[in-house]
């Protein structure tokens, strides 16, 4: 990930950092759907090139734009596995990874418990995968507000969220095929072919990301589409083949004079990050148009799974790991783990995506999406809980702790590595701390 040295952000970078396009799309969709429900669905489902083509706003947002969204997520996971990354060596990541297991098992358990307690229809059970993932960007913003920009809980939560989303991608791929068509596994051979293309391109030392995206990714997308699985995952198995620096060097090793990384993996992210961030307005508009009358058993099941299941699951497994000798990061305790678990309950983007895959019946889908939208309550709850538990904000770095990196587009990333002796490098942390988010 590239460093960023300037002390000022442009207006566009600020919009990206605060996920404004996504939130604007969500709010616009909710308003539109509640004022003119029929008009909203006409606009979202209108087929641009004639009936039967299925080429509409929903298709573009979910099957094209999200290809690059999940591709960037795959890039973050790939980078975290490099030497010096947050997942390498594995032992230092054991505790947050145990928290990740709890962050999936807890929501799934609470979801099924709520379905049983509410006596919900059997069809509601299929939504168990909706609360398993975390919205990385929103969770990062709220964590900085609660803990301060340099608290180890922010890094803990980022690592947990990255691993959480990796499991979420697997759940989408395996458990949520296209409900309207039976899976055609034979076409998955095209996904393997796309991966083989990526492997050959890397062996040939092809440095441009375009062949990986257009050829490898295009073949993979076609295979998933024909197999009736989600083509949005097309780049996930291809991105790891893009040439990288061979190591993830850590926050203070990235230079102090702007972006210097020019490896294929980082060039891919730098090129697509802004279009994806602003394109998320389209995703929010196409997926979040839920009337307030849509609330039902799926709403409360998803909401409880995210707010309660995430909190309890992450806390229980992280504290278990601590007891087993896989210590929490220095500076964290039971209180901060509980709040981090609650913040992880922000499941907006991926939860909306899975809700659309889990249910085809409009009423159930709308109810589940409303639960995902209401998970935004995790933000004020976490802020209040932080005050009640007297959690002290931290704005200085603890020696040896992994710290989040903000690239030029405002995207949080997780690195770990030795602290630098360069005082100028440490001063570069200033721009990552937004006064608007962090009042004294």
Descriptive account of the structure:
This protein is an all-alpha fold. It has one domain: Up-down Bundle (Na+/H+ antiporter like fold). The chain has 16 helices and two strands. The protein has helices spanning 11-17, 20-35, 37-45, 57-80, 94-118, 136-147, 152-175, 188-203, 210-226, 264-287, 297-323, 334-343, 348-358, 362-374, 378-388, 423-427; strands at 403-406, 412-415. A two-stranded antiparallel sheet has the order 1-2. Helix 2 packs across helix 3 and helix 11 (297-323) runs antiparallel to helix 12 (334-343). The chain is globular. Residues 1-6, 249-258, 406-410 and 415-440 have low confidence and may be disordered.
Beta strand count: 2
Number of helices: 16
Global shape: globular
Q: First CA to last CA: what distance?
A: 30 Å
What's the structural domain tally? 1
Strand order of the largest sheet: 1-2
The CATH class, by name, is Mainly Alpha
One letter per element, helices H and strands E, the order comes to HHHHHHHHHHHHHHHEEH
> What is the alpha-carbon Rg in Å?
21 Å
- SS class: mainly alpha
pLDDT below 50 for ≥5 consecutive residues: which ranges?
1-6, 249-258, 406-410, 415-440
Give the second-level CATH assignment, the architecture: Up-down Bundle
Relevant CATH superfamily: Na+/H+ antiporter like domain
State which percent range the strand residues make up.
under 5%
What's the rounded overall pLDDT mean? 84
């Amino acid at each position: 990930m590239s460093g960023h040295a300037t002390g000022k952000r442009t207006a566009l970078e600020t919009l990206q950092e605060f996920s404004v396009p996504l939130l604007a799309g969500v709010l616009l969709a909710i308003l539109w759907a509640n004022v003119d429900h029929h008009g909203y669905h006409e606009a979202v489902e209108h087929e641009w090139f004639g009936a039967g083509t299925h080429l509409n706003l929903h298709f573009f947002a979910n099957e094209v734009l999200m290809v690059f969204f999940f591709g960037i997520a795959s890039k973050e996971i790939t980078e975290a596995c490099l030497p010096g990354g947050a997942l390498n060596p594995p032992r230092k990541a054991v505790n947050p990874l145990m928290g990740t297991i709890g962050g999936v098992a807890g929501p799934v358990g609470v979801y099924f418990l709520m379905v049983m307690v509410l006596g919900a229809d059997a069809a509601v059970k299929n939504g168990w995968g909706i609360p398993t993932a975390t919205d990385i960007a929103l969770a990062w913003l709220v964590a900085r507000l609660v803990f301060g920009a340099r608290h180890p809980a922010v890094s803990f939560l980022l690592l947990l969220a990255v691993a959480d989303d990796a499991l979420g991608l697997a759940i989408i791929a395996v458990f949520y095929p296209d409900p309207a068509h039976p899976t055609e596994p034979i076409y998955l051979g095209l996904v393997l072919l796309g991966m083989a293309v990526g492997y050959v391109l890397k062996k040939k030392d092809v440095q441009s990301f375009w062949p990986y995206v257009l050829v490898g990714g295009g073949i993979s997308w076609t295979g998933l589409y024909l197999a009736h699985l989600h083509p949005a995952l097309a780049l996930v198995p291809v991105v790891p083949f893009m040439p990288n620096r061979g190591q993830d060097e850590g926050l203070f090793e990235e230079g102090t004079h702007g972006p210097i990384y020019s490896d294929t993996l980082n060039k891919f992210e730098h090129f697509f990050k802004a279009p994806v961030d602003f394109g998320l307005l389209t995703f929010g508009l196409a997926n979040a148009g839920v009337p307030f009358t849509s609330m039902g058993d799926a709403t409360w099941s998803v909401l409880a799974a995210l707010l309660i299941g995430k909190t309890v699951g992450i806390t229980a497994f992280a504290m278990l790991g601590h007891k087993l000798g896989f210590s929490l990061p220095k500076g964290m305790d039971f209180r901060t783990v509980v709040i981090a678990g609650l913040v992880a309950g922000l499941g907006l983007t991926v939860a909306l995506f899975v809700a659309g895959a889990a249910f085809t019946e409009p009423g159930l889908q709308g109810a589940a999406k409303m639960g995902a939208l209401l998970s935004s309550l995790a933000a004020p709850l976490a802020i209040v809980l932080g005050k009640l538990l007297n959690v002290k904000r931290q704005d200085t770095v603890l020696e040896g702790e992994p710290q989040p990196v903000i690239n030029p587009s405002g995207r949080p990333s997780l690195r770990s590595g030795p602290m630098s002796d360069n005082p100028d490098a440490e001063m570069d942390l200033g721009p990552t701390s937004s006064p608007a988010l962090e009042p004294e």
